[in-house]
Amino acid sequence: MNPKIERSVYIVVILVLAFVLFTLGKKEVELKKQIPITAEELYKKLSNPKIKVQIIDVRELTSSDEVGGYEDSRIPGALPFPNCDESKMTTENLKEALKRINPYVYTVIVSTDGNQEIFKKCASKFTNVQNLAGGMKAWQDAGLPDDSGEYTPPKAGGGGGCL
Amino acid sequence: MSMTERLLFWIAIIVLIVATFGVKGKVDNLEKQLSQVSQQQPANGGNQQ
Questions:
Q1: What is the total count of domains within chain A?
Q2: Is the same domain home to A109 and A132?
Q3: A65 and A125 fall within a common domain
Q4: CB contact under 8 A, B17 and A17
Q5: Rounded mean pLDDT of chain A?
Q6: How far does the CA of residue B45 sit from the closest CA of chain A (Å)?
Q7: pLDDT of residue B46
Q8: Are A53 and A106 in contact (CB under 8 A)?
Q9: How many Å apart are CA A145 and CA A47, to the nearest integer?
Q10: Lowest-confidence range among A48-57, A69-78, A119-128, B33-42?
């Protein structure tokens, strides 16, 4: 076979396979968005240092309800992003948290009870995102570790890890 | 076309095929999970979330 034709055939096969892989990858991300992650699954992921997970807590900072707000009880390492609204990020700490939010990292959205409305609002801001099934209430009910207090950015070199 | 070039093309093709099958497996698994979730939701009165 003519080398030029043979090379072209190989390149076309590679391009077709790459396209199929890309399409399937996109489909995987879309499906993940529709399936909420359970508190136990999230805990397992957080316990594995090889998996990078960004947790975004969309609850208000303080709340008088049973579950509480971000500052009352949160998943360790969670970043505050009340109602997924940048205009609410007014204090120095929240501005710092906003700077740390990376839209391209695998993200889990934490609300009070896994509300789909707020999740849909936030999901548009992230490329690879899942909802926490049952929200913070499910995390607390499962007896998993939590953190409290004002958000403090991790010190340089200290990493953002938590569990 | 040299044998080395041909071999590199084949390696790329095999890597892509393996990756495609891997992702296809994940997608199938997620589709199964999604159908389970959507079956559970009406059973719970659709107010699970």
A1: 2
A2: yes
A3: yes
A4: yes
A5: 88
A6: 15
A7: 46
A8: yes
A9: 12
A10: B33-42
Verify whether the Cβ–Cβ distance A32 to B30 is below 8 Å: yes
Q: Which residues constitute the domain of residue A73?
A: 35-141
Q: Could you tell me which residues come within 8 angstroms of residue B22 by beta carbon, excluding any fewer than 6 positions away? A: none
The verdict on A53 and A132 lying in the same domain is: yes
A153 occurs within a structural domain: no
Rounded to whole angstroms, how far apart are CA atoms B29 and B25?
6
Q: What is the pLDDT of residues B1-49, one digit of tens each?
A: 789 999 999 999 999 999 999 999 999 999 998 888 777 766 554 444 4
- Name the closest residue on chain A to residue B20, using Cα atoms: A21
Same domain assignment for residues A44 and A79: yes
Beta strands of chain A (E only): which ranges?
54-57, 79-80, 107-110, 129-131
Contact at 8 Å (CB) between A1 and B1? no
Residue A132, SS3 per DSSP: strand
Question: What is the tens place of the pLDDT at every residue in A94-148?
Answer: 888 888 999 999 999 999 988 888 998 898 889 889 999 999 999 999 999 988 8
Alpha carbon distance A57, A112 (integer Å): 9
Instruction: Tell me whether B20 touches chain A (CB under 8 Å).
Output: yes
